[in-house]
Amino acid sequence: TRNKDYIRLAREIYDFMLSGYDTAAGGGLYWKEFDHTTKNTCSNGPGILLALHLYNATINKAYLDTALLLYNWTKQTLQAPDKLYWDNIKLPSLTIDERKYTYNTGTMLQSAVLLYSITNNKSYLEEAKAVAESSYRFFFKDNKFPSNYWFNAVLLRGYAELYKVYPDEKYIDAFKEYVSYIWKKERDKNNIVGKDKSLIDQAAYVEMLTRLNGFK
Q1: Most Cβ neighbours (<10 Å): which of 20, 88, 201, 213?
Q2: Does 216 score more than 90 pLDDT?
């Protein structure tokens, strides 16, 4: 829209986000304000995406530098050997919480694709392809992804971003099977989906349907 109010607000969010950065554990953003006990993929992955989107909107190199700072720290600190992402690192013990969630992998996958699109460095594309394949093998079982719809919607964002530069139908087809499974198996008589019938589940399901509608 070129409405400067939006970019002003985005910058305010960016500045607030960076108030959660320090060099403990080598860098990275804390998960919660005023809580210095954990740095998570789920704070750093979205932080990278915010910085990259701001870079694309402004071509201000400072935003790209921030994205690379957070991306490199998260990859070095929280990426598992199978290319997926662990949940967090505890402070001060530096113990890794090795749980793996679709949304953590999703933000880092999307970040790698955007970095490739911006820099044309093929190592980011190769990384994205490896993350996508590993996530497909690890998370997609029996025609479905794990239980949290909104976690999975974030993974779909990563797959959709990858499709723009590497159009492998397999990952999109997996999500088509998944939303079909939800409609057939996890929907009640009022067409409400999910075990908990929560609003966030409905929103995530609609998001997945909407994104998939852009693919044949």
Answers
A1: 88
A2: no
